[in-house]
Amino acid sequence: MLRTKNIYAQICNSNKAGHQLSDSELCQLQSHLMAMYKEIEAVCERHNLQMSLAYGNVIGVMRHNGWIPWDDDLDIMMPREDYDRLLSEFIGELPEKYKAYSVHTNDGPYERFAKIVDTETEYVEIMGGYKHHEGVFVDIFPIDNFNPHKRFLKLRKIGMMFMMYTATSVKQYLVKNEFYRKLMCSTLDGKRNYRIRNIWGIVFSFIKPEKWYKWIDSASKEKKHTGLLHVPIGQALFYDGKDESIFFPPRKTKLADGSYVYIPNKPEKYLDIIYKNWRVIPEDTERWHHFVRKFSLGKKEISTIK
């Protein structure tokens, strides 16, 4: 069975739903995201907190010596202890226009991981609309210890997937995003997926998504140091932990434009684990991007659709 994200992407691509950013808009967005990254990096360096780019941003560094040309987001990952300290102790050192959504901050979590949003911008996604400012954002993921010998490990992973599925289903039900509903229900797979999630969301709506995300964050933590690490989200829950030397210490790398970023210590091995064929540039139809209804960087509105 296809995951919601895959069905959603297929429908959006086939219906040409939302606004796909032009090359000029992408360039502006990437520059803005890099500025946000540098602000976060400065706070981390000031307090000796380890961080690195994650996922597709690492591909951008290794394959393109910068950004993947069509990439429209920025992901950071941090060891759990540093992640918790950044969000609970030092997040106030970021510019006032940035709002942090996490289990550690006053605004609470919007996702199972932290999201830093620039409130002077707008970045309204088709799937969005739940109790937060929809602006240009940077996602920050915790890297947790992985204990392969923990009792009932498989059941624990399934329990985590249950909580994640439930949190997003409850959010879908509470948001009642009519644009998203019509889009998903335009195909049989999408309609089935939307209705199942909506029913699931109704059943568990007596517990708000924020509570589910707090439980997920708590269940993700593993105090025992095993030398193995993982980022406990989505399908990655069912992967084994990987040697910590793949992640740490982060490597500071120079990009083509002369700037520097942190990436995992062994970036090729990291990418081989997650993407396997990351060295091959995918076809247009296989390229993931966010589908937006409104995009503004604060000075002027760039794009809007109804």
The stretches of 5 or more residues where confidence is low (pLDDT under 50) are 300-306
Assign a percent range to the helix content: 25-40%
Query: What class would the helix/strand composition place it in?
Result: alpha+beta
Number of helices: 9
Following the backbone from N to C, one meets helices and strands in this order, namely: HHEHEHEEEEHHHHEEEEHEE
Q: Got a strand count?
A: 12
Mind describing the biggest β-sheet?
A: 7 strands, mixed
The multimeric state of the shown protein is single chain
Instruction: Give the termini distance in whole angstroms.
Output: 31 Å
- What share of the residues does DSSP label as strand, in percent? 15-25%
- Describe the global form: globular
Comma- or semicolon-separated keywords:
about 300 residues; alpha+beta; three-stranded antiparallel β-sheet; seven-stranded mixed β-sheet
Tell me what the structure shows:
- A hairpin with a 5-residue loop joins strand 9 and strand 10 (260-263).
- The strands form 3 sheets. Strands 1, 2, 3, 4, 6, 7 and 8 form a 7-stranded mixed sheet that branches. Strands 5-11-12 form a 3-stranded antiparallel sheet, with no helix packed on it. A two-stranded antiparallel ribbon has the order 9-10.
- Helix 1 (4-15) packs across helix 7 (188-203) and helix 5 (153-175) runs antiparallel to helix 8 (209-220).
- The two termini are 31 Å apart.
- It has 9 helices and 12 strands.
- The chain has 306 residues and is an alpha+beta fold.
